Structures are given as structure tokens and as C-alpha cells.
Amino acid sequence: MSREMISKLNEIAEENFEKAQAMLEGINLVLGTEYGWLKKRVVFFDDTSSVAAKYASAHDVWAYAE
After folding, report:
1. How many other CB atoms are found less than 10 A from the CB of residue 37?
2. 60, 42 contact by CB (below 8 A)
3. Is the Cβ–Cβ distance between 43 and 35 less than 8 Å?
4. Is the predicted pLDDT of residue 18 greater than 90, yes or no?
5. Which residues contact 45 (CB under 8 A, 6 or more apart)?
6. Model-level pTM?
7. Under a CB-based contact definition with an 8 Å cutoff, are residues 42 and 62 in contact?
């Protein structure tokens, strides 16, 4: 995803989180990704073995986007 798309999703999440969640679920389905949310920002996870590990290894997608 581009930084522009991620920024827009983050903005939408601030206004209407349910709408942003549905959009991200669609993106995950189409791209085969497992992006999630942390503080209404799109993140990805290095370790999904448990909930604690998942959020301990979360990274902001915007920072890694091109």
C-alpha cells in the first residue's frame, strides 16, 4: 500500500473506525495481507503466535511504505 492510501485509512479510522476496519479487511482479503490496527493506525506484525506477541511486534505501516 502507498503512504497516501495508509494516510487516508488512518484519517478515516479517526472519524469512523468501523468503516476503516471494513476497508482494511477488504484490503487484507485482496492483497493477502494481515494488517491490523493499533491506536487507530494501520500496523503489521512480526509475530502472530499470541495476542501479546502480536502487539509487542507491531510496526506502523506508514513508516515502511514507499
Report:
1. 16
2. yes
3. yes
4. yes
5. 34, 36, 54, 55, 57, 58, 59
6. 0.90
7. yes
Residue 43 makes CB contacts below 8 A (sequence gap 6+) with: 35, 36, 37, 58, 59, 60, 61
Give me the amino acid identity at 18. E
pLDDT band at 66 (very low <50, low <70, confident <90, very high): confident
CA dist., res. 60 & res. 43, Å (int): 4
3-state DSSP of the chain:
CCHHHHHHHHHHHHHCHHHHHHHHHHHHHHHCCCCEEECCEEEEECCCCCHHHHHHCEEEHHHHCC
Q: Quote the percentage of the chain above a pLDDT of 90.
A: 97
Closest CA to 41 of 31, 65, 66: 65
Task: Name the region of 47 (left: φ>0; alpha: ψ -120 to 50; beta: rest).
Answer: beta
